[in-house]
Amino acid sequence: MIWDKVAGVYDSFENLLNGKVYKELGNRIAEYIDENDVVLECACGTGAISEAIAKKCHKLVATDLSSKMMKRAEEKCRVYGNTVFRKANMCALNCRDERFDKVVAGNVIHLLDDPASAVWEMLRVCKSGGKVIIPTYINKSDKTSKLLVKACEAAGVQFKHEFTLESYKEFFISLGMYKAEFFVIEGRMPCAVAVIEADGWFDSKTKELLENPPYVDGVWDTDKLYEYLVYINTYGDNLAKRYFKNHLSDPKLAEVLLREFSLNDVMDGSDAQLGAAVVLRMMDRDALRANKELVLEAQKNEVYWKRPRPEDDDMSWL
User: What does the pLDDT look like over 212-252, one tens digit per residue?
Assistant: First the structure.
């Protein structure tokens, strides 16, 4: 991977092109760390932030996908004796809920295909009352920032998202995180830092829904499910990704969505039917196979978006 290839020169590259921000970022993040904190850092890289956190926290679990980058970070943090390093995918953390006091991911969101999934995972593993801290490089309108982006891409680093401060704020708002706080570290390529309270990120409607889930004791409550589906269609599918991700292989959910929403004439054209279509498109094929006749019936619908698999002309996999 590209990060293993550049591990040996990464610090020099950052210090040369954006040294002021690179050096200041760790210290600013460390201001949020308390001495009794157990901290998770995702995408720790060569440890520029890790070292600053390790100086202050009780324990740091630093993760990355690049072994060679982590080796550099481990060398920096060895003296503190409170840091362990693990290879991990920040979009699918092998960790129980509410494990850490603080969760940090520095300058990685803009490199991910699905940054929302990473944010949800960080919130999932952060304790109630804790903080999720996400610094990300942003673009200014001047030529310097654009040249830095081009330099990074020339080195093999692909920016999947190029945020401005406003679009970065809008990204979190799109996830329902209206209470996120932001500050900016200025430099050649500035860094915007989002600070999210782990139990205070959501608006009142999202909180209400999460406190009243539609699946209880092995049964799907159609009325509660209706509320979820309406909300999903109105505010986007991030709630679906958060709540339904553990149910996407459930044939009972697929059956309810198909019978009560997709194929129910009473629901025709409703926000709930649109929301059901979103969740059905996310579901595993095995869950749909268990409801083959319903899927095939729904797939005949002339309205494209109402089909469980609108992109599949060939349904032979059923």
Answer: 889 988 899 999 999 999 988 776 656 666 678 779 999 99
Which tokens sit at 173? 């708002």
Strand locations in the chain (E) = 38-42, 59-64, 83-87, 100-105, 126-137, 181-185, 191-197, 215-216, 219-220
The 10 Å Cβ neighbour count of residue 194 is 21
> Which residue pairs, CB below 8 angstroms and at least 24 apart, start in 15-22?
17/148, 17/151, 17/188, 17/189, 18/137, 18/148, 18/187, 18/188, 18/189, 19/187, 20/185, 20/186, 20/187, 20/188, 21/137, 21/185, 21/186, 21/187, 21/188, 21/189, 21/190, 21/191, 22/48
Q: How far apart are CA 180 and CA 173, in angstroms?
A: 8
The residue count for the chain? 318
The residue ranges of every structural domain in the chain are: 2-197, 204-306
Percent of the chain with pLDDT over 90: 53
Q: Are 48 and 13 in contact (CB under 8 A)?
A: no
* Three-state secondary structure call for residue 88: coil
DSSP state of 99: -
* Contact criterion met (CB below 8 Å) for 130 and 198: yes
What is the separation of C-alpha 251 from the centre of its chain, rounded to a whole number of angstroms? 26
Asked if 187 and 209 count as a contact pair (C-beta separation under 8 A), the reply is no
40 pLDDT tier (thresholds 50, 70, 90): very high
Query: What's the CATH number of domain 2-197, 3.20.20.80, 3.40.50.150, 3.40.50.920, 3.30.450.40?
Result: 3.40.50.150
Q: Are 47 and 24 in contact (CB under 8 A)?
A: no
CA distances from 241 to 199, 238, 275 (A): 18, 5, 12
Q: What is the pLDDT of residues 48-101, one digit of tens each?
A: 999 999 999 999 999 999 999 999 999 999 999 999 999 999 998 998 888 999
CA 306 and chain centroid, separation: 27
